[in-house]
Hints:
The protein is an alpha+beta fold. It has helices spanning 32-46, 49-57, 67-88, 92-99, and strands spanning 19-21, 24-26, 60-63, 113-116, 119-123. The chain is 43% helix and 15% strand. Mean pLDDT is 75; it is low at 101-125.
Amino acid sequence: xxxxxxxxxxxxxxxxxxxxxxxxxxxxxxxxxxxxxxxxxxxxxxxxxxxxxxxxxxxxxxxxxxxxxxxxxxxxxxxxxxxxxxxxxxxxxxxxxxxxxxxxxxxxxxxxxxxxxxxxxxxxx
Length: 125
């Protein structure tokens, strides 16, 4: 997409990968039927030809997930990125900022329920 920008591998990190994803979150006490309705509408919108075309032009790829699958995806991302940061020697402050992406801030340990469990996925290889 950017012809003069090297890939991660070309920049000296063979096997490196950067994935950018976007999801929708709701407060932890959101009723499951509300989450299901939001998820269905997000899925319907993302399935439209216009949205598929827009995402494709941006290099995006929708990932079909239920709210539960999205919760599991976020937890896996959290675990993988947390290990990567520990291996790189990141400080607790840096890791706290990364954790804020997955947790809602209530003592840093209360997961939010996912509502829009399908999100664009833009590969950065």
